[in-house]
Design brief:
The structure is a homodimer.
Chain A lengths: L12 H8 L3 H9 L6 H14 L5 H8 L4 E6 L5 H16 L3 E6 L4 H13 L4 E4 L8 H8 L4 E4 L9 E3 L3 H14 L5 E4 L17 H16 L9 E2 L5 H12 L7 E4 L2 H13 L9 E5 L13 E4 L2 H16 L14 E3 L26
Parallel strand pairs in A: 1-2, 1-3, 3-4, 4-5, 6-7, 6-8, 8-9, 9-10
Antiparallel strand pairs in A: 10-11
Helix pairs in contact in A: 1-2, 1-3, 2-3, 5-12, 8-9, 10-11
The structure holds a DNA duplex.
DNA sequence: GTGAAAGCGCTAACAT
DNA sequence: ATGTTAGCGCTTTCAC
């Protein structure tokens, strides 16, 4: 029980100084521990501060130092565990270095993102970590970079932007996964993504998100290398709600020449795709093979367990934060920038094709859950 | 291309004022739009600001106004979709009212929570939304409340704290769910929770989290009402990593008088419990019945789909934000504080105790070829 | 309506 | 080592 609990005005250095019988400057030095302060004074000031329950006003402090000790994080969808994990990596790392994190959700909406970046800048964050909704519309990020504020891109790269970027090599893992499907006998492989684009798909179309276009490129390269016809008609974007995704899935599966395998571009999409498949009364992997990005824990619980593309999300969050903090502290870039690789985790959702055409069951299923 | 892009110092009102040939005060008024400004001046100032690419310094602004237009949110685990969704409800609502959100993760660690609250207060947030790790150790929250800063509790209540709280009636839904299990024939029902506590379980033990103690109370009440012996030996806490949870699950299932039904206190626990059950070669609901809190999308994808307790998490986030903003704006409490109710979503993971004979909950496609 | 000047709470010269 | 005096960029009296 110290003195009276509630106080109208906040306690300031001036109050502490008065109580400790020293100048405001000395009190400030002791409190902020910088400059030279004698042991005696330091003790008196700290005691007074304690007694008065003094709390520094970080705003005022930030205003003169120019540092807010805060980093801003802009993600598309905090509800998505993918970002949840990444965010955790960021905050854990930031905390370790004494930084706070301001999180802003953009709903993968470009305008919201522009806004978020502006707000964060106005709040004078020391740096920004952004998972850009678009890899093409990056004016707002260019501005950040040009203004000299530390910036790190997460998850998605932006070619026109020469800034630290923490992301996995999507083209390569996409290629590997597709080859895996092709080797399992598939030649009608669909790809569903949330990417918002007005244009309908066309080969070589410049996509707004490098992440997605890299995946598409990987898929198509695998097809070309296998000498197969590229399944351009099975690439679908704008898969935004569960209903849309289900509808797309149904279409894909009921085409005259239907998809025999589906790749979901993230866990949320995967969820709806699987529901649609179940609703259709189809079985994985007998009727359709399924592969998805994001190795969520629940993917081990389904029957069969899902074959997924795992990304070291938490570690990427950590790396992004580290890179940003390094920039903020003005240290030079690390010797080698960490390379993150996604891995194909083969479980049980990929089998051979069986659709309308020749269903060669010759190929054996993946390792099924032990009974 | 306006003038030179990068500038050493930020543009301030003074710069704008000079450019617009007015006093600093007038420029500030026009920019912050308050006070009286003539049309002519306003236009000139705005034009100049635009030209100079002026951005207000929110820190300085906050310093005089005392408002930061920011609300702080403290949650235990951002990685948990439960909080992810709630957070989304909060940010969506906050944005609508022009508030920004600072998110801090505490890892359900009490010390980290105390720290988080302090940091947020130091940053002069306008208000706080906290999902308290403990319902007992609430000194830091008491302080917040006493200091007059708006505060809203989310998810968990704190009896000793008379502040706006947004949470569901856990005792009641827990009671309902337990009765449901009892009616299905179970009398050996286990409950697993992450709650950190040093004491081993004992009836009536005062638990740190009201959420958890309410659930336990609901369970026990159902047992008493049914005239059954309360399964005190099946209540387990400190279930913190996947391995711990699996171990606990195994123990529970291999007791001389084993549990025939398990209630997982959240989705993350549920995941590991299910894995353990699968590892044991047991089948749900034939060998064990399973019920869990949180209606995550993937619970519809398992075989059988899971019977869960759904909470209106997003709506609760919205309500919490609304309540907080109301406090911040000094408006009075609403006529009736919204009551949130969890609902028992009966799917297929609950059956009878001795081998699915009481399995009246199956749906059509539920018992598909799991093997 | 407008401008001069006084802060907000703190840090940062600059003296002493 | 300590105190004095300026600011940081903005809002806010308070005169005019």
């Amino acid at each position: 029980m110290s003195t009276d609990a509630s106080r109208r005005r906040d306690v300031t250095v001036a109050d502490v100084a008065k109580a400790a019988q020293v100048s405001k400057a000395q009190a400030a030095r002791a409190l902020g521990n910088y400059g030279a302060v004698s042991e005696d004074v330091r003790e008196r000031v700290l005691a007074a501060a304690e007694e008065l329950n003094y709390r520094p006003n970080e705003l005022a402090r930030s205003m003169n130092t120019g540092k807010s000790n805060t980093i801003g994080v802009v993600v598309g969808d905090i509800e998505n565990p993918h970002f949840g994990l990444a965010t955790r990596g960021i905050t854990d790392t930031a905390k370790k270095s004494g930084f706070n994190v301001i999180l802003v959700n953009t709903d993968e909406d470009w305008a919201a993102e522009v806004d978020a970046v502006r707000v964060l800048l106005d709040k004078r964050v020391d740096g920004l970590i952004v998972a850009p909704a678009s890899s093409v519309e990056t004016r707002h990020l260019q501005d950040v970079h040009h203004s000299g504020r530390p910036l790190v891109l997460l998850d998605r790269t932006a070619r026109s932007l020469n800034v630290d970027t923490v992301a996995v090599d999507m083209e390569s893992i996409s290629h590997e996964s597709t080859r895996y499907l092709i080797e399992a006998g598939h030649s009608r492989i669909a790809f569903i993504s949330t990417l918002r684009t007005d244009d309908s798909y066309a080969t070589g179309l410049s996509l707004g998100s490098s992440q997605i276009s890299d995946r598409r490129d990987g898929i198509m390269r695998a097809f070309r290398e296998a000498g197969l016809k590229e399944p351009d008609d099975l690439v679908r974007f704008n898969a935004d709600g569960p209903e849309t995704i289900k509808k797309i899935t149904r279409e894909l599966l009921q085409l005259p020449d239907p998809a025999t395998a589906i790749i979901a571009s993230d866990g949320l999409i995967g969820l709806s795709v699987m529901e649609a498949i179940q609703d259709l009364g189809l079985t994985i992997p007998d009727d359709v093979s399924f592969l998805m990005y994001d190795d969520f824990a629940w993917t081990r619980l389904t029957r069969p367990p899902l074959t997924v593309i795992a990304q070291p999300v938490y570690e990427m969050g950590v790396a992004a934060a580290e890179a940003l903090i390094r920039q903020i502290q003005g240290r030079k870039a690390p010797a080698a920038k960490p390379e993150f690789a996604a891995t194909l985790v083969k479980r049980g959702s990929v089998g051979g094709p069986s659709g309308g055409k020749g269903s060669h069951h010759g190929r054996r299923k993946e390792n099924l859950p032990a009974t």
